[in-house]
Amino acid sequence: MKSVFAASLFLSLLLCAACSQAPEGAGADAIIAAVPGGDISADNLAQSLRVLTSDEFEGRAPDTPGEEKTVEYIAARFAEAGLEPAGDDGGWMQQVALERSEIDGPVAARFTTRAGVRELVQGEDIAVETLYPHDRVDLRDVPLMFAGYGITAPELGWDDYAGLDVTDKIVVVLVNDPDFESGEGDFGGRAMTYYGRWTYKYEEAARRGAAGALIVHETEPAAYPWATVRNGRNGPQYDIVRKDAASHHLPMRGWMQREVAERLFRESGLDFDAEKRAAQVRGFTGYPLAGASASLAFDVRRGRIASRNVAGILPGAERPEETVILSGHWDSYGVIADADDRGDRIVNGAVDNATAIASLIEIARVFAAGPRPARSLLFLAVTAEESGLLGARYYAANPLRPLDTTVADLNMEMWSPDGPTRDISSWGVGKVSLERDLIETARREGRGYTPDENLEAGLFYRADHFAFAQAGVPSITIGPGVDQVDGGVAGGKAARAAYFERCYHQPCDEFSDDWDMRGPVADTRTVYRLAADLANRGDWPQWDEGSEFRAEREKSAAARAASN
Ligand SMILES: [Zn+2]
After folding, report:
1. How many angstroms separate the alpha carbon of residue 44 from the centre of ligand 1?
2. Has residue 481 been placed in a domain?
3. Which member of 73, 171, 203, 389 lies 3.0 to 4.6 Å from 147 by CB, making a disulfide possible if both were Cys?
4. What's the CA-to-centroid distance between 354 and ligand 1, angstroms?
5. For helices 42-52 and 518-536, what crossing angle results, to 10°?
6. Long-range contacts of 68-71, Cβ-Cβ distance < 8 Å, separation of 24 or more
7. How far apart are CA 381 and CA 309, in angstroms?
8. Which has the higher per-residue pLDDT, 37 or 386?
9. What is the pLDDT of residue 191?
10. Are both 234 and 359 inside the same structural domain?
11. Distance from the alpha carbon of residue 360 to the mean position of ligand 1, in angstroms
């Protein structure tokens, strides 16, 4: 990991030196084919963005009239671009069966400690939810147990649950992993591992038979503010339909504000920060919070819905059975309960992730306008990413094209409207050859590559490509760089920080005609060229030695060899 980082950083430093001397595309090495169809068009990208982010699309939440408009729009644009339908039964849509679960009415919640009873306000103090198959949560005076970071990692000799029986108890756990704050250790230091993700913590607590889990929110290790937590739990929750839902899901799960946890620990005779530090030391094991219990009651409205992935294909000229997937998620957060200070309740999801859908449509257009690549290209707009990568998970479980002969998934997220950059990036460190392919493609264009500098956010586990990775398919999520042509790295980082602080998953993530489209155009062009390269090559991208996904891919390599 470190050497990849160092090599890439060195490379991008070299390239940035080159870039500052020559305009984009004019470097000595930058002998690259013209993009067919008159190049990636800023106007086309802006037009798609204008429509997808309009209030008429109601923030593109699954299972709303906004979904209908969104998927119909994408399908129409795929058709207009020249793709063929690749969904179920010869159509554009892949039906995605989801469980839907929504809190119905008020949440009654309180902590009881030695200091007395304290009422908790949903959205302010806590943000709870459930995906458990029941119609009411009614937990009364359930003991609270502190389980540190909530991690059981046998390969690292770490078990926060050792000797702790949390059956039918509520566990209180910390966000991220034990070495985030020290920056050094077995859990990747500042980089978040899967053990740091809230999804993992819920899964582990459910395996332990807990009645619930409450994660203590802290902005830095969570990598997002409380508003993001609250807004993300304001509406319905979804999962793919599971036979084992009752054992897979906790009866109740959620977050609490750090201040609420501090008080809870204090009233249990403990200091939160001291206990947190203790939980960062190997050998820590969890314990009951003396005298503390929680009661939570709320009704749940449940149902099954069908959302949709949109799929279009450009069959390959020579090896059509081999497929390169380009993907992005179409969903955003819809209409939320709490208006922002401008009175806006619609999370239009412009940067996240209408930018990627606009690129998907535009890349389809230029491919269809040019010579047909050897391999097939599948354009996949997936649903319910924001609910847990569900459209991508559904696809990976029910692929429209065999995964054995799926070359790669190139997923796109969140292009930047803040001005063009000298570089491009990808999320997380994936230990996958596609990262080097991306670096090489960018280099030929006279652009650099900046590895994810925000490894603490655990982005590798927070984008749709992760669902493909778990199924063994080499995959990356490509995102914008940070080294602005006009503002440098400082400008790029400031713009990124401002977006995450103010607009990420909030109503202010809106498109405006003032957007600088040069960044999205350049990034879309790089993705097009990488896809063209992969679709014309004969080899198969690989997970590197040490990647947790390599073993799964080796099975599909064996399957390909057997069928040849
Ligand atoms: Zn996104």
Report:
1. 21
2. no
3. 171
4. 9
5. 100
6. 70/330, 70/331, 71/308, 71/310, 71/330, 71/381, 71/383
7. 6
8. 37
9. 80
10. no
11. 14
Q: Tell me the pLDDT tens digit for each residue of 297-338.
A: 999 999 998 899 999 999 999 999 999 999 999 999 999 888
CA 328 – ligand 1 centroid, Å: 8
pLDDT one-digit tens code per residue, 5-58:
333 333 333 333 333 333 344 443 445 778 999 999 999 999 999 999 999 999
Find the 349 Cα to ligand 1 centroid distance in Å.
Answer: 8
Structural domain including 435 reads: 2-91+315-405+427-471+516-538
Q: CB under 8 Å to 493, separation ≥6 — which residues?
A: 482
Query: DSSP string covering 106-171, please?
Result: EEEEEEEETTEEEEE-BTTTEEEE--SS-SEEEEEEEEEEE-TT--EEGGGTEETTTT---TT-EE
498 pLDDT above the threshold of 80: yes
Distance 501 CA to ligand 1 centre (A): 15
Instruction: Tell me whether residue 171 is in a domain.
Output: yes
Q: Are residues 84 and 104 in the same domain?
A: no
Shared domain for 78 and 167, answered yes or no, is no
| Spacing, Cα 99 to ligand 1 middle (Å) | 21
- Give yes or no: residues 79 and 104 share one domain: no
Exposed, middle or buried: residue 540 (CB in 10 Å: 0-12, 13-18, 19+)?
Answer: middle
Whether the CB-CB separation of 185 and 191 falls below 8 Å is answered with: no
Q: What is the number of other CB atoms lying within 10 angstroms of the CB of residue 557?
A: 13
Specify the number of domains making up the chain. Answer: 2
Cα-to-centroid distance, 37 and ligand 1 (Å): 28
Q: What is the dihedral of CA 239, 240, 245, 249, to 10 degrees?
A: -30
357 plus 432 within the same structural domain: yes
Find the 386 Cα to ligand 1 centroid distance in Å: 7
Asked if pLDDT for residue 545 goes beyond 50, the answer is yes
**Does one domain contain both 331 and 435?**
yes
CATH number at residue 523: 3.40.630.10
* pLDDT score of 456: 65
Q: From ligand 1's centre to the CA of 518, what distance in Å? A: 20
Q: How far apart are the first and last CA of the chain?
A: 35
Number of neighbouring beta carbons within 10 Å of residue 228: 18
Are 280 and 355 part of one and the same domain?
A: no
What CATH number is attached to the domain comprising 211? 3.50.30.30
Q: Is residue 480 part of a domain?
A: no
Cα 412 to ligand 1 centroid, rounded to whole Å: 9
Residue 47 falls inside a structural domain: yes
Dihedral of the alpha carbons of 174, 175, 179, 183, in degrees to the nearest 10: -130
Rounded Cα distance, 388 and 461, in Å? 10
Nearest to 202 by CA among 214, 220, 188: 214
Q: Are strands 334-335 and 152-153 parallel, antiparallel or unpaired?
A: unpaired
pLDDT in tens, 514-523: 999 999 999 9
Regarding whether 104 and 87 lie in a shared domain, the answer is no
